[in-house]
From TrEMBL:
Signal peptide: none annotated. GO terms for molecular function: gamma-aminobutyric acid:sodium:chloride symporter activity; metal ion binding; taurine:sodium symporter activity. Residues 1-38 are annotated as: Disordered. It comes from the Eukaryota. The keyword Aminoacyl-tRNA synthetase does not apply. Residues 1-18, 29-38 have a biased composition (Basic and acidic residues). Na(+) binds at G56, V59, N63, S303, N335, L400, D403, S404. The chain crosses the membrane at residues 50-68, 80-101, 122-150, 220-239, 245-264, 300-317, 329-354, 383-402, 432-457, 463-487, 508-528. It is found in: Membrane. Disulfide bonds join C162-C171. This is Transporter. GO terms for cellular component: cell projection; plasma membrane. It comes from Esox lucius (Northern pike).
Amino acid sequence: MAQKEKLQCLKDFHKDTLKPSPGKSPGTRPEDEAEGKPIQREKWASKLDFILSVAGGFVGLGNVWRFPYLCYKNGGGAFLIPYTIFLFGGGLPVFFLEVALGQFTSEGGITCWEKLCPIFTGIGYASIVIVSLLNVYYIVILAWGLYYLFQCFQPELPWAKCNQPWNTDRCVEDTVRKNKTLMLTANITNFTSPVIEFWERNVLSISSGIDDVGSLKWDLALCLLAVWVVCFFCIWKGVKSTGKVVYITATFPFVMLIVLLVRGVTLPGASEGIKFYLYPDLNIMLLLLSQVWIDAGTQIFFSYAICLGAMTSLGSYNKYKYNCYRDCLLLGALNSGTSFVSGFAIFSVLGFMAQEQGVDIADVAESGPGLAFIAYPKAVSMMPMPTFWAILFFIMLLLLGLDSQFVEVEGQITSLVDLYPSILRMGYRREIFIAVMCFISYLLGLSMVTNGGMYVFQLFDYYAASGVCLLWVAFFECVAVAWVYGANNFYDAIEDMIGYRPNRWMKWSWTFITPVLCAVSVLQPHILTTCSTAQHCPWISNKPLSHIYLLRVPSTVMCCHHNSERDFQRLARVFKNKLTSWHTHDLNQRWANYGTRAEANPSTNCQPQTCMSACKEIRIHLLMVQ
């Protein structure tokens, strides 16, 4: 009988610990009170808010313009072999690790590591450095897309013909080039197409090199300002605003992608493009090339938006008992499925364009900005109703990039606000802080909307947030969780949250597979290039510059805010996780208070003597744990 009363007492106490102390906010947790935090973070209004926010965050431009290109470049369907290995050996495990870590600690990308393993707090700082630089240059793509969208509202697409003020004498329309192939064969390299001249001479007004910055392009600067303003209003109220905006920004692009897919596969020449996309190269030696595996790894880490602190921040807004494991697997299938389906939409159109021009598909297939702002606009100009399809494509491009942008900015803001909660959570300081961060990022981005801005953009793309940086962070994340904190301990925490233990594959990946894949990839540094010529990007061959990231990420990861001490025991306490002592002192006090209230209130479900006995047992247990 006494045992049943003790169990009932423990249940009552569990409910009691969820209540705030007198005078506290209803959302305040005991551990928040003990650490002096002003209020508890808000939570997602519904599960769908979280799912759509994550889907919008990692289903972005890379799924549309990079995966299809890498697939055809690295052997077609054969590329799916290394891609799948990296997906299950690195992408999904690290993605789930970050979401579960955020949900477990209810902290952003920096402070979560302070609670889990303080000496690896530098992982969070490294992630913030990377995502901050990423936010500066990624949104420039949206500024280009917005400019193209505005240009679509003209009687005729401005990149369709050579009758514009920016065109040169070397501009030859594609219809003329096709009809006069024999006449132009000898000098075909001396001519350019109207879409290339529109991109280089009108949109970019590109200079001769990075040493010639030139003047600011005010039209692009205003477009950049517009997308930053939209981004600010998407996140300025936290997850309350983000969770509602994603209902449009995360779903509408899928609708438009399906429409473009249906239109693409009905075009003449589409089957040849799809065959070119998927037909496997049976040369087994291709899979032995390190370049193929590096492309697969970097694509996985880019498309899943991991190692940036964003997924951890989004997970921190989940309720503690939320089944994040199930939804992470579903979201992973959605992400990779979108990449695969996008290839059909893109290469069906490229197959049509190649047939219209009478050239090989390899001559029109491009990756990165070249696909979005040269190849695809050129293709839609050849379709019936070109203006409609161009508007549809650039709206999809903007929405795909916009939700990725504001989710990454939200991850950055959440991590920094959690780092200084007593300063940034009071009143309207969070909104002011977001505005300041957006404005600073906008000022930095102005360097990329000058005449030489494309070269600055490429520098950021190659070295600021390169795939190798992400691999470094993923490596140390797995080391911190699996080897320092303990994979089994983390599995216990996940079981406490979702009610069961995930498949052991996750634990094996964190412990062995992912660190090995990341380490092997890091030993083969790779630069993602989209420059048309080496003259445009002379730094590509600069080997010392290509290794700068090796100085930043590991040094940031290993730097801890704790002071260096010679005492070995103090160093051991730095490694020891702080989760066991988060709210031990506060729980002790609450046990005492609860026992006093039970003695004074006869309506309590357990007898005072039994309750005090249970209190004593639990307090002894807490002291042993501590």
